[in-house]
Amino acid sequence: TIKLVNESKVRCVGFASSYTKYAVSAMKRHSEGSSFNGDDLKDILILTRSSFTYAAKLLHLVLASSSESSSPPEEAFLLANNLLDLVPAVESFAGPRFALTLVSVVKQWLPVLILGLGCRWLIGLESEMANKTCNLGDPDLPLWVAALAKNELLEAEEPREDDQSEHEQDVSPSSRKLAEMMVTLLRKGSPKILDSVGGILLSNLQLALQRAEHGIVLGLARFACDKLLGSSSSSSSSSASKNLQLTHDSLRESFFEIDRHCKEDGRVDDECSRQQLESAKVLISSVLPYDACSQTS
Q1: Which of 79, 99, 130, 204 lies in disulfide reach of 90, CB 3.0 to 4.6 Å?
Q2: Do 30 and 116 lie in a common domain?
Q3: Rounded to two decimals, what is the model's pTM?
């Protein structure tokens, strides 16, 4: 297998990525009105966990064989995203209990998946990495990113006593657990890795803004600013963002893009969306140095 990867790693990772994306798509199609019984679901979960492990091992081999002179293929980034998408896909298809068992498998490989997300800015020639943009290559938001953002919104809400149970049911426990594990690893690990993943998340924020998914914009702003950078301490957060160049630039760009959307006529139709965007601006400005937001275009 290692020899095969070294000789044709792009093709191997591309196949694994396409296979995983197909599995996610199939689960989405059958998530409503599924006729699968308990035994069927168990068999599907066993297959999913096994496939995940093999694909994650392949991703690990490809990343380990990459170097400054041999950057990892674009497909490695796509595979990492698709593997993370399996968590919300399984939860939607089979329920939180099955999804949480998958999360226990994901946990073992999460450092590899995080490296896969940031590999385009972590491995390769310095001159090439500096010129790379966070192009996601897909018009749709990754499922794991959307689930993460929605959980952030739900956590921020103050539920009334009469809808407490409904509020709890809406939170995705597997995606929340996945997010918690990612935050722990990213905050403990290398600033370069945190910077690259921060840039990816903020690229998704800008994509959500283009798609007028203003709740996702606010959810991702909360996650990036509160969870990853910790905006509870304004001075330390500003210092952290300044030392994370890709994240800092992406935050600044996101701030001005959101500001432009708020000011242009016809961009934001309802008051709820406007409030969400204004809240996102406040969060972003809290982790940026004052002068970074003082010039509006």
Answers
A1: 99
A2: yes
A3: 0.87
